[in-house]
Amino acid sequence: MTDELLARHRAVMPSWMSLLYEEPIEIVHAHDRRMTDSQGRTYLDFFAGVLTNSMGYDVAEIGDAIRKQLDTGILHTSTLYLIRSQVELAERIAKLSGIPDAKVFFTNSGSEANDTALMLATQYRRSNQVLAMRNSYHGRSFGTVAITGNRGWSASSLSPVKVSYVHGGYRYRSPFRDLSDADYIKACVADLVDILETATAGDVACLIAEPIQGVGGFSLPPDGLFRAMKEVLDEYGVLFVSDEVQTGWGRTGEHFWGIESHGVTPDMMTFAKGLGNGLAVGGVVARGDVLDCFEAQSFSTFGGNPVAMTGATAVLDYIKDHDLQANCAARGEQLLTGLRAYESPIVAEVRGKGLMIGVELIKPGTTEPNPKAAARMLEETKKRGLLIGKGGLHSNVLRLGPPMTLTEEEAQEGLEILVDALAATHAALS
Ligand code: PMP
After folding, report:
1. ipTM over cut 0.95
2. Ligand 1 touching residue 69 (CB < 6 A)
3. What is the DSSP string of 205-256?
């Protein structure tokens, strides 16, 4: 069954759409944090569809809210008409953003949200020069591929913007790795100033950054880096965009938005993924004067449709009612502590915040990336009933991003499987 579907997938879908696992799986049912595939095997989900299924599966309150919208007979009318759920959700996100006089524009994906942010920043500043972080990922549209600092995901080498990349996000493989936090921040800020002075004409539109790099391997700079960078950006009049597509909605445990760990308020934030719990929804929340800067009309047919808005509102209610930010902090601590307690020659670093945890795999006794071990770990965990992700510039980082509703027992179960799989992987490859 799966083989036949795989052959058809390969025949009709593009070659660059990769699938996980030596034998890719077809999920046919899911409930809470468990999924069942077409062969009847069940898995505990530690990747949540790349952090998309933030609340888990088959959540009654969210399903009921969406069904109630369907019962009105309306999937969508048009964003040319007033949509109450859209206005209410925008008000809520504007308030949650902490950005003064914030306004919101809804899209259908993170790529579209970042593309809109790029268009806003370049229009507002009348400059097509932008800064991004090395090892970043911001999407698959033409504009967002251009600001993605990872060769493996840069589908097009042609660019609609002039991009310069700065240091900061991926500390483990940075030339500044061994510096103290304070000196690391100083070195990255000096690099930013150097890039502004040498690689640009000064009138840069924006710097876009992920507070924790997602596709880049859940790597993160020390708290305070972006505050220090923002001081420089303010001097040069450069806007700061925080890409919260993976880090938003309390997933990092400490705060509602990832960027808050840095004690700084961005000019814009982009969001998607977890807000919809599987529904396609994204958007930009920004300073009103920035979001209002287009003179031409602009519009999204589906962005802000009532089904997505109702579902997203139910997700925000669910996060608040179940204090899921606190759950992310507690479960994250449990997983980080448990993983750090297990020493393995193939593990260089366990890092992250809340339920965004990266495990950097290396060849024993070196700092060299070990993509083979990461690939093997995916197979070993799958065999044991756990789905995880991988990523990083060298595909050598395990990514753990379970639904934010993960229980203590499930965290323990996942931890035991991970430790067991690490031992098996090391044994198999040595
Ligand atoms: N920004 C970040 C940080 C992401 O991780 C992603 C998706 N992995 C995107 C943007 C693009 O989002 P989408 O796939 O919804 O277009």
Report:
1. yes
2. no
3. -EEEE-SSBTTTTSB-PPTTHHHHHHHHHHHHT-EEEEE-TTTTTTTTSS-S
